[in-house]
Amino acid sequence: MRRRIAVLVVATTTLVLVAFLIPLAVLVRTVAFDRAVNTATTEAQALTSVVGTVDRSTLELSVQRANAQGRFPLTVFLRDGTVLGAEAERTPAVRLAARGRSLTVDTDSGVAVLVSVGDASGGQAVIRSEVGERELMRGVHRAWLLLAGLGVVLLGLSVLVADRLARSLVRPTRELSEVSHRLANGELDARARVDSPREMRDVATALNHLAGRIRELLAAEREYVADLSHRLRTPLMSLRLDAEALRDRQESERITEHVDTLHREVTRIIEQAGRRSSAKSAPSGCDAVAVVSERVEFWAVLAEDTEREMRVDLAPGPLRVTLEASELSDCVDALLGNVFAHTEDGVGFDVRLFPHEGFVRLVVADDGTGFGESVTSGEPLSRGASGSGSTGIGLDIVRRAADESGGAVTLGTGERGGARVTVDFGVPER
């Protein structure tokens, strides 16, 4: 935008300068021409009184003196054919002037001024003054250079003013863009300045209003999540009491442990909602091997109960990724939970973790029927889309976590024909 405004001003200023300077340059040329011709005419007319009153010898001396003192060479053509002063031919224009008519004619070297005057013998003489091309253009080129310099100065000033004007317009736009990016990155305290031009001020006010509204909505969301947690704690407490009342002590402890785990997960969700309302900060990262090992150990109990073969191959750690341990744990739970939810009991699966081309790759592949045509359509990665009647959120959680770390998710078919999910997690910069 800044460059376009400068180009527009330069084009407009150039047109204006051309419209004024070209006629002015022609006027300077015309004035110089008229001035030179008038001077030559004046010098020629100064001899008219001498030609008509003095004798030939005196006239010759007067012509020589005039040529020595004047700017333009003078020639006197007498009636008897005598030529006094500067050498010149008796042209048809001279013969016409000898009939009593003064005139100005163009010549090969400039302009000739012819003045008709009566001589002392009663005849008709002609005084000729020659104006050369150089005299006709005296001072014109210098004036043209000055006009050109003035045009360049005016053009430069217009560019400078246009640049300042464009900067005053572009600066608020860039500030608005910066504030919008900060808001997109979670800095809800970012606000745009309202001391810009009126149009930009209206936009800045609207953006600030939008930022305030977003903050209010997020605050309302956090309050809703907090209310939800309190609503869940009552049934969780009831479930815990029922578990403690079981006669089988071992079964009671197992169910109580699950209730405590559910309670911790609800609390963690509330804490994550509070963190997301503030400005985003760079994640500290975690050891993927430790997190995956812990979650595999948790799911191993259920795999044993459902007679599933769990094949685990984890590279020796540590393998750090740019995700919090809780987020990576959610990804592993989502992937393994899908295996248990969408395959029959007894279907085995693989869990592999290893470094791969600058990423840490997690592969979960089962021995079931696979994704089918949904892999090509991309539906399993669309939030809310599921071909098996579930919420369709699990793989979307994995996708968002991979994207935030700088990685990606790939769906495919495993070596045993089942579904395979490959997740690449970004690693911290060294």
Topology:
Elements: H1 2-45, H2 48-51, H3 56-69, E1 74-77, E2 83-85, H4 92-97, E3 103-106, E4 110-118, E5 124-132, H5 133-136, H6 140-184, H7 198-244, H8 249-276, E6 286-287, H9 288-305, E7 310-314, E8 320-321, H10 325-342, E9 349-356, E10 359-366, H11 374-377, H12 394-405, E11 408-413, E12 419-425
Parallel strand pairs: 7-9
Antiparallel strand pairs: 1-2, 1-5, 3-4, 4-5, 6-8, 9-10, 10-12, 11-12
Helix pairs in contact: 1-6, 6-7, 7-8, 9-10, 10-12
What gross morphology would you assign?
rod-shaped
What is the radius of gyration? Answer: 50 Å
Average pLDDT confidence is: 82
Helix content: 55-70%
Oligomer: single chain
Can you write the helix and strand succession as a string? HHHEEHEEEHHHHEHEEHEEHHEE
Count every helix, treating DSSP H or I runs of 4 or more residues as helices: 12
Ends distance: 39 Å
In total, how many beta strands? 12
Structural class: alpha+beta
- Main sheet characteristics: 5 strands, antiparallel
Instruction: For the largest sheet, list the strands in their spatial order.
Output: 2-1-5-4-3
The portion of residues forming beta strands comes to: 15-25%
